[in-house]
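Figure S4 source data
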Amino acid sequence: MGRLMDCTSSLKTLDDITWYAKRYWLVVRAVFVDTKLKNPYRTKCPYIPSAKIRREINKAGVFDNGRLISQEGGFEYCFLGIEWDIIRSQYSGKIKVREAYYCPKGYLPAQLRKNCFEWYKKKTELKGVDGKEYEYMKSKNRVNSFYGMMVEHIVKDIQTVKENLTIELSKPTDEEAQKQLDDFYSPMQRKFLAFQWGVTITALARSEHMRLVSLVGDDFIYGDTDSIFYLNPSKHDVAIAEYNKTWKAYISSCGIEYSAVTRKGKLQVLGVADPEPPVQKFVTLGAKKYAMEYMEDGKKKLEITVAGVPKKAGAALLGDIRNFKPGFEFFVGDDASLEDRQTWKKTLHYHDNEPFYIHIDGHDLQIGTGIGITRAPYNLDITGDYSEITGYTGRYNPNEIIIYEQDDVW
């Protein structure tokens, strides 16, 4: 909250970074050299993402679910002060700060936070209410848009219309990128949201998520955007209750409302670690690919989370958690219900060529330019990195891997 000021020359040691990170909002662009996890066997959820680093060509790296375990040579990575304690506690190696800026910390504008909460409240009250599906969806869209507007891509691909009226996309040159930046930030009076607010929101969410991961320690088995799965729940009940107590004390001092009531009268508090029903069976093939089995109202329930596959239809297609393995195809055919066909992920097929004719029922039908929409199949698979880490080659073979089973996965 304030003007960014250069502090590059002040960050000469690790403790210097820590000092600024504790007192100010801080952003650092740095080079890491020969980086590795301090304790690879006890670090259940490595933090640095491979997608966000720029590394030397032909230098080997080891990754788990897209997270860095070790990297030979150097790589460049940009991080916020919020993330520094996590990075420093997990990794060893050398670091050289190339560029760093700081400014005062503070809350987002009160009116912005209050307006965001109002839409969150509406979303919470409308969830699961018959006949209010559209209003619920739009309220959820409004909440998400607060963040989405902050992190809009400022530098976009260049679109060129060719003589044949096709559109060609290309990456902007340094000069074109700089012009887009200048146009976006000038005049500043038109800007009411800041990109750095958006990236801070997700960094704060990740830091809280990592705090929960550390609470359950070696019992941690999987973490998603806003959840963790772990063994031996009763062992961690006190620690998580204390986490929630501390969080509620903090959020109550932020100056806005922080809780809403569901249609069933349940109090929903923003940011608390809210326990779900215990899971009897859980399987994952990597990030955003997992299935679980649990009991609800005395009945066995199967739930899946696979990026691009609708939850309800996907679980029905899977049928049995034992089918959740590489090679399984999720797809709904023409005989599926209207709802399943409408909500299924689509593929767009562009036809920009010369018109042509097809002969149907004795008639010649001209096909011009247009877009065809088809339902897209999704095949479960496993990445090479994840296969190497787990020893799982990609097809179920009970003699090849150890299947670990334990009750009360939380």
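Figure S5 source data
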Amino acid sequence: MDPYTNESAYQCAVAIRDAIIDKRERQALNAFQWSRAILTALFPAAAGDVHGLEADSKFFRSLMVVFALCGVVFLSQGKILEGLAALVLVVPCFWRYYERRLKSTTQAYVYLITLHRLGMVKRASPAGTQIED
């Protein structure tokens, strides 16, 4: 299995979401948003893990933008070496952003799948009581 894909975990999370929530509600939430909402509402420690990975990915995304802008500014000022160095640094920042983003979504799906299998995430009735699947 390729560690840089989460297709299987994604498909499982979508299947769980689709079995639990109404068809109308599915359009409002993608699988990651829904998984993250379940973790935030019911399992804050697990949500904290996912939020930490998301924060890391956002940091590297921002750093990537900063290096790209610095590269353009340096090049426009004739500072070729500095500009190229800044632009080269965009690549590892992008890779780290991508890796952290993928890990955050995969981790959210894995938590959801595990909690669902343990019976901790179930279909809720309109009155808010739990219904067995």
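The beta strands are 123-124, 130-131. The first strand starts at residue 123 and ends at 124.
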